[in-house]
Automatic annotation (TrEMBL):
It comes from Rhodovulum bhavnagarense. Binds 1 [4Fe-4S] cluster. The cluster is coordinated with 3 cysteines and an exchangeable S-adenosyl-L-methionine. This is Dual-specificity RNA methyltransferase RlmN. Its cofactor is [4Fe-4S] cluster. S-adenosyl-L-methionine binds at residues 196-197, 228, 250-252, 327.
Amino acid sequence: MSVTPPIAPEAMLIPRKPVVSDRQNLVGLTREQLRAALVTAGTPDRQSKMREVQLWQWIYQKGVRDFDAMTNLAKEYRARLKEHFVIEVPEIVTRTVSADGTRKYLVRIAGGHEVEVVYIPEEDRGTLCISSQVGCTLTCTFCHTGTQRLVRNLTAGEIVGQIMLARDDLGEWPEPGRHPKDETRLISNIVLMGMGEPLYNFEAVRDAMQIAMDGEGISLSRRRITLSTCGVVPEIARTGSEIGCMLAISLHATTNELRNTLVPINRKYPIAQLFEALRAYPKLSNSERITFEYVMLKDVNDSDADARRLVKLIEGIPAKINLIPFNEWPGSPYERSDWDRIEAFANIVYKAGYASPIRTPRGEDIMAACGQLKSATERSRKNRFQIAAEAGLPEPERIVRRPNAPDVH
Ligand code: SAH
């Protein structure tokens, strides 16, 4: 089933500009697409499988971008490849490193658009948070990315390319013949929790994640990949059957009334429908739980009654509840719940038998925390009046300039 994203009236869906070079980028092609491309470029059919595997290994296991470095290919064949193809990943424009070690990359993709990628090192893992769209059409009222007007889907190459560029920056291409175990890798986990709604860009996300999971690709276990969605119900079953990764749901509210304002897609796919799809998600078990993300907004969704409703909703689903203290951004219409409130909420959920970790904000000093992503250079943004109107909040006070008063910025 195909899904049409609800597009906020202010959002503009921008077509991708044609790639300047007429050579095709090999990054992001599925194995079948790569093979077909090689045959079109003159590779004999009977060799195409072998070439596909060789190229795949050079690109995804060794991080090679230059055909001349592919020493197991004949010189003439390398020349032919160079004529037709390139191996390109998005370009890092800036890299900001937080006091806590979190790294935020501003990354430029074709057409000059930008997305953000965040690397979060922890003691037992390293998580890369990647983006699936420039901006986002969802307009969740507490999320900074939703205030960006421009939206475009990333290609599979731009999605898997984010993993590759982070590996470049971290110096993590394994030495030939050495395959570090997942746990000792700098990038051991991938979360699709950056900019965009991954299930509104399903095919590209799927193809990119297939490469990330392939033993001859980036080679990460499907259990180390988590796709976060606001709940695009028709695509949830497909995520299970065609990707098979772990699922995180941006729940944030326990009644339709409140969820309709916080996560407007709820008007299309209300809570009951969402939970029906979740209960049918394959392989659900205690070791493969669904993560529910719940942003803690002061006096909005953080009462004891909310916590109890939450427990009731998830009953019977192997689940973990990730409580996210609200991260503020310029013009944000909410406040973070008090710490005591967050702990009391967590306690109710925990006592009901669910893990309820409170997500420590990481990289706040560099605006890399959840919901703060938004390319700094993106000037076309909604103003605070539009943000408040969408959140159903009273109009902010207008700043009245009196003659001779100092300028207010
Ligand atoms: N569109 C997908 C992927 C984004 S994941 C989704 O909705 O799941 C980013 C997570 O951070 C989501 O759970 C989102 O709801 C949450 N988030 C957004 N803004 C936030 C903020 N200001 N503070 C804390 N969490 C936020």
